[in-house]
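Data deposition worksheet. Section B asks for the primary sequence of the deposited chain exactly as it was used as input, without tags or linkers unless they were present during the calculation. Section C holds the resulting structure in token form. Section D is free text for depositor observations; keep each observation to a single sentence. Incomplete worksheets are returned to the depositor.
Section A, Depositor: J.P.
Section B:
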Amino acid sequence: MKLIIIIPAHNEESTIGSVIKEIPRDIRGIDKVEVLVIDDGSTDRTVQVAREARADYVFSNKANKGLAFTFSRGIEKALKLGADIIVNTDADFQYDQAEIPKLVQSILEGRAEMVIGDRQVAKLNHMTLGKKYGNILGSFFVRLITGSKIADVSCGYRAFSRKAAMQFSIFSGHTYTHQIIIQAVAKKMRIVQIPIVFKKRISGESRLIKGFFGHIGKSLYTILRVILIHKPLKVFFILGSISFFLGGLIGLRYLYLYFTSGVSGHIQSLILASILISIGTIVIIMGFLADLINTNRKIMEEILLKLRQKDYQKNNEQKELDS
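Section C:
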């Protein structure tokens, strides 16, 4: 049983060494623990410090690609290296690496395919109010649209089984945290959330995510995009029904006035009602068409999963032969 901890990092020379050194190398139920650092085009000594701290693998992006790309590349590398369980942590030393055994326990026991840390954001005194309430609102919104009970959707301290990691498709260039939760819920994965320690950042601001308001806007766009991909019929049906319902109300008002007072005016109301009902009908039809496309996407994802399993298995067998 191999556990690989992936650490996306961008200009974190002051903390990444402490993160790597704090990672436990002896965990019950795990035969081998390895550390994989994905450097996102750092311009400081992040790579050198990671190697000095004895990271098992260090890979670098040729340029700064962003958190989502860096995380996705880390997952891909870990799977190719034969990881049975993958843990993602941050390079800024805000997570307590001693809690990694807690993250992987539910996966080892077969109770979960993905485990998410809960920073208990509402209780944090060192998080700015903007970030705190941004996280709370974001989590509420994701719970509302997915029906899940995940308290902290933005926490990056997570563990994945091998099969779960193979099923994620990261298409946003901004952040992965919301994407994979929505995908995991849509795929009916077993998800467990556990409370974790979240320490105050030692220095500076996040280097992987720049700009609070820009981050919020891009995150909302990503959430909406993922929801449209995984639940198109629900979204289009709700939007179409609203338009159809409003058009129907206006149409009923016109008919009421026409038959009760005999007034032949209000033609504007009749035109508006016709437009709204037509738009509602078209949007609902679009929902059914999108749902058919979604069914095809699910089939493609099943094929992709089988191809990934076969590819990674061959890769690992070749490495065993070479060694």
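Section D:
The chain has ten helices and seven strands.
Strands lie at 2-9, 32-39, 57-60, 85-88, 114-118, 158-161, 191-195.
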